[in-house]
Amino acid sequence: MAKTLEQSFKRLEEIIAQMEKSDTTLDASFKMYQEGMKLVESCNNQLDKVEKQIIVLNDDGEQDDE
């Protein structure tokens, strides 16, 4: 099941907090890093999708606030 942006950001914060602990092993840190990178990619994809939807709305005659 895909995570929402909010869920992904919350999990990224958890990963960062865990990685900052001095008792985290190198192996665990690497696994968390990999999970974090997948989450970042997912977030980027979701944000790109929203951005494209906004562009389509603007192209359909909606006023752009810029």
How would you portray this structure in words?
This protein is mainly alpha-helical. The protein has one domain (5-60): Orthogonal Bundle (Helix Hairpins), CATH 1.10.287. The protein contains two helices and no strands. Helix 1 runs antiparallel to helix 2 (26-59).
Order of helices and strands: HH
User: What global shape is seen?
Assistant: rod-shaped
Q: From the alpha carbons, calculate the radius of gyration and give it in angstroms.
A: 17 Å
Number of domains: 1
- Poorly predicted segments: none
Mind describing the biggest β-sheet? none
Overall strand count: 0
- CATH architecture heading: Orthogonal Bundle
Compute the separation of the termini in Å.
36 Å
**How much helix is in the residues?**
over 70%
Q: Classify the beta-strand content into a percent band.
A: under 5%
Q: What is the tally of helical segments?
A: 2
Q: Mean pLDDT score, rounded?
A: 87
- By helix and strand content, what is the structural category? mainly alpha
Main CATH class = Mainly Alpha
CATH topology name, in short, is Helix Hairpins
Keywords:
66 residues, Helix Hairpins, 0% strand, mainly alpha, single chain
Give a nutshell description of this structure:
It contains 2 helices and no strands. It has helices spanning 5-19, 26-59.
Write the layout of secondary structure elements.
Layout: H1 5-19, H2 26-59
